[in-house]
Write a structure and sequence with these properties.
This protein is an alpha+beta fold. It has 3 domains: about 290 residues, Rossmann fold (3-Layer(aba) Sandwich); about 170 residues, YVTN repeat-like/Quinoprotein amine dehydrogenase (Methylamine Dehydrogenase, Chain H), CATH 2.130.10; about 80 residues, Thrombin, subunit H (Beta Barrel). It is built from 13 helices and 40 strands. The strands form 10 sheets. An 8-stranded mixed sheet has the order 33-34-36-35-37-38-39-40, with helices on both faces. The protein has a 4-stranded antiparallel sheet with strand order 2-3-4-5, with no helix packed on it. About 50% of the residues are buried.
Length: about 675
């Protein structure tokens, strides 16, 4: 036996021995009930960390969030929950003196700002506003509240919107009239309200003042924006925010700009980045207030361009890119106490790594690289990071600002994990399209035995500017397949993030050729390197772009596969352009509009190859998915049924582009895995 085969045999033997000691392999129910830790925030002195835990209410079929505190000054201290589960609380933030913890909580269908003493005590409601508080930031002196709320476009006060909402309840007609896009976005229809910024005294001594008067856009952005998109100046006199001015171009524009506005609303917001027609976002003032850091893309109409770190001199207007030679796309920034270092988390060769960036030179230093950093905070020399990997759901870790002394400080799922056996991922590389090095990983089944072959789940990621990193994914988790007796193969094809911008850009206008070549060569390389993969007993599955690729493979590369699973995929590129919400994505990825360049949309259109479909397929599509509407999945299922190909259609009427409800998630996994087992003839 050669060295490679011997190494594989040893790995399988170790996995098998570990499985004998475990009560059960990982499964979908384990995934659904895991506590999910997120959003860590350090107190001003770094001695406490506040964070969110999402737990599962199985009977109610939903997740519920609560705010927790952990005393980091006492080694071995246990975290304590600050809020009752019924409040569904989140968004924690400390007062400047560190004595009070503020957060958002929902009671009687109203989301407001609440507080609790850090030393202990019952939470109390702080604001009693007529509308929900969506997100917030406290002023540097802790006396003012900056927050976002959903406002009707013709209103200037919260009361105005409240009155309109109450009046609507009395109207029996249900029609909705629109004069521009977006009509619907992600998972909801527009009701003509936009997120707007307000400021008010924290003690409620004066009514909220609208800061974003005249701004026709959402602050923060929808659907996934956060308070990282706005900031106070250090002296509390100015507010900075980013926004895309909507108008009629909103669905095909990525032109976000960074604005400044006086905190007393004494003048209108001022655009600070008007010269850049691409995406500017995530403003962060320097400690002395003289410089504004922010992130900027360079390609208009593109959402997956590289975010460079910019520094704007607020007095002179001069700006420079801090990291022009760093081939990574930065995320939201944090600043060191001395103002000399910026911190950010980035996709980085199969991980989501935490980096420190020297402000003067732009030099990046990797602080935490194994696994995936899902959130972090920095105070003084202390860093807290929310980290996960293939075998560990998110927990909090501390380290120094130099990347030393890494220590896990929470263990939320320790008891659950003790009874679970995981598989181990093996990363490999091969030469893909254009001779470039492409990365992927393989997982054996948890009960794998040396010398045996196993059926394969070939996973295709979405995005397409996404990746399969070393993470504990709460939906597409490879361990659910390894736990069900399948080996897993996953390829980070051209278009994936974390391997340089040129690698990411390579997929645009090439959805059907370059990534397909990587998948084909990656499959061949995996079969060669990992002999336990059964080449004749494999199914391919993916969602979103991965779902598109499944439909595409069904027509142009179907010979190796025993079955397909497609979740929320693009079946007809032509109609996708006219039915989706965010047109900038379609126009960039296809080199223009469909009516000007129809040939681009037909070049890799799965619908044109239905005559060559032959492989059994499970189609899953959610009714509230407005990114890739349900008609795409229904069209594919119709094609399969009309062709006489064995097929099933699973629909979730209450889910969007993702399947989020716990019992729906378990049903999804059980349906998918049963389908895989049926066609790979696995008992």
């Amino acid at each position: 036996m050669n060295f490679r085969l011997a190494a594989c045999a040893l790995a399988l033997a170790a996995a098998s021995g570990a499985a004998m000691a475990a009560q059960h392999p990982f499964n979908a129910h384990d995934l659904a009930i895991m506590d999910r830790v997120s959003d860590p925030h350090l107190s001003p002195n770094g001695n406490e960390v506040a964070f969110i835990v999402r737990s599962t209410d199985w009977d109610a079929n939903k997740g519920v969030t609560s705010v927790w505190l952990l005393d980091l000054s006492h080694k071995g201290a246990e975290p304590r929950r600050v809020t009752d589960l019924k409040l569904n609380a989140g968004s924690p933030a400390f007062s400047p003196d560190g004595k009070t913890l503020y957060f958002l909580a929902t009671e009687k269908d109203s989301t407001q700002l609440w507080s609790a003493p850090v030393a202990g005590g019952a939470p109390a409601q702080v604001t009693h506003l007529p509308l929900d508080v969506d997100n917030f930031k406290l002023s540097p002196d802790g006396k003012s509240l900056l927050f976002s709320s959903q406002m009707f476009e013709d209103c200037a006060t919260l009361e105005c919107t409240r009155e309109k909402l109450d009046a609507q309840k009395k109207v029996k007609a249900t029609g909705r009239l629109y004069h521009r896009l977006f009509v619907r976005h992600w998972d909801e229809w527009s009701d003509h309200r936009r997120g707007q910024l307000f400021v008010m005294p924290l003690d409620g001594s004066a009514k909220p003042i609208l800061l974003t008067r005249g701004i026709d856009g959402d602050v923060p952005s929808k659907p996934d924006g956060s308070n990282a998109e706005y900031a106070w100046s250090p002296d509390g006199k100015m507010v900075y925010f980013d926004v895309r001015i909507a108008g009629k171009t909103e669905p095909w524009s990525t032109n976000f700009d960074v604005y400044s506005v006086p905190a007393d609303a004494s003048s209108a917001p001022k655009n600070l980045t008007a010269e850049n027609k691409a995406w500017d976002a995530f403003p962060l003032p320097s400690r002395d207030g003289k410089t504004l850091y922010y992130l900027a893309m360079k390609v208009p109409g593109f959402e997956a361009d590289r975010f460079g770190i910019m520094a704007l001199d607020l007095a002179s207007g001069a700006r420079r890119e801090i990291d022009p030679h760093w081939d990574r796309s930065a995320g939201p920034l944090e600043l060191s106490a001395d103002g000399k270092t910026l911190y950010t988390a980035v996709a980085d060769e199969g991980n989501v790594a935490l980096y420190a960036i020297d402000v003067a030179t732009g030099k990046p230093t990797k602080l935490l690289s194994d696994g995936s950093v899902m959130g972090f905070d920095v105070v003084g020399d202390k860093v807290v990071a929310a980290r996960q990997d293939f075998t560990h759901p998110t927990d909090l870790y501390t380290l120094t600002a130099q990347g030393k002394d890494l220590a896990q400080v929470t263990h939320f799922n320790q008891a659950r994990l003790a009874d679970i056996e995981f598989s181990k991922a093996h990363w490999f590389t091969f030469k893909g399209w254009n001779g470039d090095t492409v990365h992927g990983y393989v997982m054996p089944p948890v009960d794998a035995k040396p010398g045996q072959k196993y059926p394969v789940a070939f996973l295709i990621h979405g995005g397409p500017q996404g990746a399969w990193p070393d993470e504990f994914h709460y939906r597409w988790n490879p361990q659910t397949y390894a736990g069900a007796g399948f080996a897993v193969v996953a390829i980070n094809f051209h278009g994936s993030v974390g391997y340089g911008q040129a690698f990411t850009d390579a997929i645009s206008q090439h959805w059907g050729d370059r990534p397909l070549e990587d998948l084909q060569k990656g499959w061949a390389a995996a079969l060669k390197q990992f002999p336990y993969l059964d080449a004749n007993n494999a199914c391919a599955l993916g969602a979103s772009y991965g779902g598109y690729m499944v439909y595409w493979m069904a027509g142009v590369w179907n010979k190796p596969w025993k079955c397909f699973v497609d979740h929320d995929g693009v079946f007809d590129a032509r109609m996708m352009y006219y039915a989706t919400d965010e047109l900038w994505f379609e126009e960039h990825e296809n080199g223009g509009t469909q009516f000007e360049h129809p040939e681009h949309y037909e070049k890799f259109n799965p619908i044109d190859h239905v005559k060559d479909w032959r492989v059994p397929m499970l189609v899953v599509h959610d009714s509230r998915d407005y990114r890739i509407p349900v008609s795409q999945g229904l069209g594919a299922f119709t094609a399969l049924q009309r062709r006489g190909i064995p097929s099933e259609f699973l629909n979730f009427p209450d889910e969007d582009h993702l399947v989020l409800k716990p019992q729906n998630s378990v049903m999804w996994h059980e349906t998918v895995i049963d389908w895989l087992k049926r066609w790979t003839q696995q008992d």
